[in-house]
Amino acid sequence: MVKLIVAISGKRKSGKDFVAKRLAEKLRQVATVHLAGVSHSLKQEYAQIHDLNYDELLTDGPEKEQHRRDMIEWGEQKRKQDAGYFCRKAVSADPNCDICIITDCRRTTDMEFFKNYCKTLAVRIDADLEVRKSRGYIFFYGIDDAESECGLDDYKHDFVLQNNGDDAFLEKQMGEIFDICKTLLSN
Ligand SMILES: Nc1ncnc2c1ncn2[C@@H]1O[C@H](COP(=O)(O)OP(=O)(O)OP(=O)(O)O)[C@@H](O)[C@H]1O
């Protein structure tokens, strides 16, 4: 059974995936680590039901755009029935690992699910708007002002990591998270 979840949230292009991968590398020195995403489990199941190629769902094009809209609606319906549905799928993908890093928490219900599931460290990735823009961020109405993007803006995370491109500072903060995880694993 998973002993610890590191639940990562952050704005688009704040560096959630980047930080999650670096953190996984570090934590693999002391534990088995699985990287998972709530939205990945949603996309995977949607693709399976509709006999679609998972990667194709992520590409552009009118047909894919229609699928994306249907997929979002389908996901909302599933969440209404069971708010933790995709979180459970994400964390169950490798039930024997010590640490599961979730790269894309978006809603308070995601955090509530993980905190109830097992020991969870909620980590917020912060990056300045200009830095995010330099990484390709563009504001989209209906996306960047939606609950899925803003739902955790005011949530009290256990650790807030600044990811503005200063690698030495990033490593220092990673070291602090690494130590917290080690302590949580041994308690
Ligand atoms: N500290 C960093 N140093 C160098 N490059 C970085 C750093 N953080 C993020 N990046 C780069 O910025 C881009 C966006 O990062 P990433 O994909 O991790 O963001 P994200 O928050 O997961 O984005 P999205 O929400 O859109 O999935 C990537 O190309 C990534 O390699």
Automatic annotation (TrEMBL):
Pathway assignment: Isoprenoid biosynthesis; isopentenyl diphosphate biosynthesis via mevalonate pathway; isopentenyl diphosphate from (R)-mevalonate: step 2/3
InterPro entries for this protein: P-loop_NTPase (IPR027417), Pmev_kin_anim (IPR005919)
Signal sequence, renumbered to the chain: none
Record: residues binding ATP: K11, R12, K13, S14, G15, K16, D17, R135, Q173
Subcellular location: Cytoplasm, Cytosol
Biological process annotations from GO: cholesterol biosynthetic process; isopentenyl diphosphate biosynthetic process, mevalonate pathway
GO terms under cellular component: cytosol
EC number in record: 2.7.4.2
Keywords assigned by UniProt, alphabetized: ATP-binding, Cholesterol biosynthesis, Cholesterol metabolism, Cytoplasm, Kinase, Lipid biosynthesis, Lipid metabolism, Nucleotide-binding, Steroid biosynthesis, Steroid metabolism, Sterol biosynthesis, Sterol metabolism, Transferase
Chief location bin: cytoplasm
PANTHER family named among the record's database cross-references: PHOSPHOMEVALONATE KINASE (PTHR13101:SF1)
Superkingdom per UniProt: Eukaryota
Molecular function terms from GO: ATP binding; phosphomevalonate kinase activity
Lineage: Eukaryota, Metazoa, Ecdysozoa, Nematoda, Chromadorea
Species of the source: Diploscapter pachys
Name of protein: Phosphomevalonate kinase
Pfam families: P-mevalo_kinase
Enzyme class: transferase
Protein residues bound to substrate: N163
